[in-house]
Structures are given as C-alpha cells and as structure tokens.
Amino acid sequence: xxxxxxxxxxxxxxxxxxxxxxxxxxxxxxxxNNRDRRVPLPASVVEVLRQHMKDHPPLTIILPWxxxxxREQVTASLILTxxxxxxxxxxxxxxxxxxxAVTAAGIVPSRSTGMHALRHFCASALLDAGEGIKALASYxxxxxxxxxxxxxxxxxxxxxxxxxxxxDRLFRPAPPDGPETA
Length: 182
Description:
This protein is α+β, with helices and mostly antiparallel strands. Strands 1, 2, 3 and 4 form a four-stranded antiparallel β-sheet that branches. It has a two-stranded antiparallel sheet with strand order 5-6. Helix 4 crosses helix 5. The protein starts with a strand and ends in an 11-residue tail after the last helix.
C-alpha cells in the first residue's frame, strides 16, 4: 500500500496522487495505472476520517512530481502522516510499524501477511458482499476487469449456493392473498 491523497467528498474518496519512493526519495505521482479514481466510502469511514482530521489536522507538504530531480513541485495535504508530522515512507512503515504489529499478533511476517494483504482483504469483502468485478476493477485501479477476475476469482463466494437460492426464490410459491384463516 502506498499513501494516497485525495478529496473527501460526500461518500467518495477521489484519489488523485500517491506518494512514491523513487531513488530513495519521496515524490508525488499518479496512482496505479497512471490515473486517478474515485472509491465509494461508507458514512462510517467518512466520520472516522473527519474525526481523525479534527484531532490531527492534515499536513501540507511539497514534493516533486514523479522524479526527485523534477522542477515541478506539487503541494498537497496528507491525512495520514508519521508521529513526527512527516509523509509516510512505505518502507519505513512496513519495517517499523506493520511487521512488528503482525509479529505481536502471533502471525509470521511474509508476503501474504504484508500491507498488500489489506488490499486483498478489501477486495474479498467487496466480492463477498456481491460487488461486481467491473466496479471492483475500477476501485482497485485495474484497467482490465479480466485481470481483476483472474487475480481475485479464488476469493469469490461459491456460486452453487447462490444458484440454488436464486432458483428457489424464483419458483417459491407466492404467499396467499388476503387474511390468514385459522
């Protein structure tokens, strides 16, 4: 996961840029597949983010765009920062915060338990709730829904029970009209 910045609109997070590590320096750049995107946020998450921003005001920073040597500088406000009010370096966060937390929880740190696992967790939760592959691909920043399907198909809930339930609902007898008789 890379830190991102965006606008918090009514029910949406507009992801416009991310912080990247290029030649050991932090820079701003476009998110995955070099395009911004919008991801729906439930009111509960918006509320938590707004409270976090009230308790910890966003940090305004200036970083080069895409290339540490670039003259193009971009100013943005970050919602999540280090305790020293600096941009989060993903390598530092992984080594100093994420892996120790995983270890403390009794989980062996590995590729499958890394920060990227949160992305897979979110994708699996959305698939389990019935979100479509095309929408999920858009939220994850995949340009090809087929790629999303190939990567996440193993997380999709079994279709056999959905098939049984769909046909069962289709052919279930309608309730009788009128008041019930004893």
